[in-house]
Automatic annotation (TrEMBL):
UniProt keyword Hydrolase, yes or no: yes
Domain Creatinase N-terminal: 21-162
Domain annotation Peptidase M24: ranges: 172-375
Cited Gene3D superfamilies: Creatinase/methionine aminopeptidase superfamily (3.90.230.10), Creatinase/prolidase N-terminal domain (3.40.350.10)
Keyword Transmembrane found: no
PANTHER family hit by this protein: AMINOPEPTIDASE, XAA-PRO AMINOPEPTIDASE P-RELATED
MF term (GO), any: aminopeptidase activity
Protein name, per record: Xaa-Pro aminopeptidase
UniProt cross-references to InterPro entries, sorted A to Z: Creatin/AminoP/Spt16_N, Creatinase/aminopeptidase-like, Creatinase_N, Pept_M24, Peptidase_M24B
UniProt entry keywords in alphabetical sequence: Aminopeptidase, Hydrolase, Protease
């Protein structure tokens, strides 16, 4: 939640951005011929800019009717709802609802949402959209309480709306990337032999908080004599001590105002080995080849093909987890049907749907190489936004192997 007290000079999302989003989503709702949509999770955040304890939001298709945000009842117990209304400038109708998120043992009910739908005059013959985040229990209760109202799955509406980032969104993501760049330097200074992985993670998170990151900001850290970028290894490294000669691989999940800063860096404890140096030089070449294909009108598949072809020109292997994807509020994100290319269905084919690059798409491009023996993984993180004439970097930190002296 970016509230009215955001520090001077820091980017924030304006009511004009709210109006842009609501108009965009309402256009999709009219196309789907629904009277309103119920959003949850990141989709609710997209409409409200985040409310404390938020669980759902209802956006009517009618432009003259405001959005309603629903928060867990506990979040406005013993305080007036005006407290939340005064703290932000996006939502003018906030109501309590069951604690679906914070009370997993509580069955909860949809009475508050049902009441709002009835207030909107949506009855028998009406159509209400729902996103993919609503549980079966919620949908079941809505169906029982609203006989004759058709519930329509509209997950693609929000995926499509969130695909192209506005200038304000890009500024939020760029600030999250700046926060991460600063934290990388703090981690480089802090990481030493004998430090536990958990201590280094804590230092990185503190450094991001000091720069204004959200409280739920975090990072992955994998390390060892063999370079690795893997969530399971990162978890195991929490209780391990760093040793001289280790290679640290950092993956950012910095967050600012609900938006992610997402890229990767590697830090050598002592001078990097000949293998790691060679892998990194190959990463540079592969990355440049992939970036040469980033432009409006290109297909996403062109990036992955360029990655694999360039990787095959090196002494190393490509990774099936190519590390080329979009991000924004969520990591990763994928575009909606508006940007997808119609493809022939091939049974057993596991390729993701292809799509066309367009200005406003925010990408993490971290092409990955694996050593010939499969023991080391190297990558070069890049965060960028597709522009009218190519792309613009969202990070200032150059890709390089950072070195801590290992003392």
């Amino acid at each position: 939640m970016t509230d009215k007290s955001t520090s001077a000079g820091k980017p924030r999302l304006s009511p004009a951005e709210r109006d842009r989003r609501h108009a965009l989503v309402r256009g999709y709702l009219r196309d789907a011929e629904v009277d309103a949509v119920i959003a949850s999770g990141f989709n609710a955040f997209y409409l409200t800019n985040g409310l404390p304890g938020e669980n759902f939001a209802i956006l009517p298709t009618d432009e003259s009717t405001p959005l309603t945000g629903f928060v867990n009842g506990r979040h406005i117990a013993d305080i007036p709802v005006q407290t939340l209304l005064d703290a932000q400038d996006w939502v003018t109708d906030i109501r309590p609802a069951s604690d679906f998120v914070h009370s997993p043992m509580q069955v909860g009910d949809t009475a508050a949402m049902v009441g709002r739908i009835k207030e909107l005059g949506i009855g028998r013959g009406g159509r209400v959209g729902v996103d993919a985040g609503l549980s079966h229990l919620v949908v079941e209760q809505l169906s029982a309480a609203l006989p004759g109202v058709e519930l329509v799955q509209l997950a693609d509406v929000f995926i499509s709306a969130r695909t192209l980032k506005s200038e304000e969104e890009q500024a939020m993501i760029q600030e999250a990337c700046r926060i991460w760049d600063s934290a990388v330097e703090s981690i480089r200074r802090f990481a030493r032999p004998g430090r536990l992985g958990a201590e280094i993670v804590h230092e990185g998170i503190r450094a991001m908080w000091d720069e204004g990151a959200d409280m739920d900001t975090w990072l992955f850290l994998s390390f060892g004599k063999h370079a690795s970028q893997n969530p399971a290894v990162a978890e195991l490294c929490h209780s391990r001590e760093v040793q001289r000669g280790d290679m640290l691989t950092l993956t950012a999940m910095a967050r600012y105002g609900g938006y992610a800063g997402h890229t990767d860096h590697q830090i050598s404890v002592g001078e990097p080995s000949a293998l790691h140096t060679a892998m990194f030089e190959s990463i540079r070449a592969v990355r440049e080849e992939v970036l040469s294909h980033v432009k409006p009108g290109a297909l996403h598949s062109e990036l992955t093909v360029a990655y694999r072809k360039a990787a095959q020109e090196t002494p190393f292997q490509f990774s099936h987890h190519s590390q080329i994807h979009q991000f924004g509020i969520a990591v990763p994100e994928y575009p909606g049907s508006k940007h997808r290319v119609k493809q022939e269905f091939v049974p057993g084919k596991q390729e993701q749907p292809d799509f066309v690059l367009a200005p406003g798409m925010v990408y993490s491009i971290s092409p990955t190489l694996i050593s010939a023996d499969g023991k080391d993984t190297f990558l070069g993180g890049t965060a960028l936004v597709v522009t009218e004439d190519g792309y613009r970097m969202l990070q200032k930190h150059e890709i390089e192997i950072l070195v801590t002296d290992g003392a």
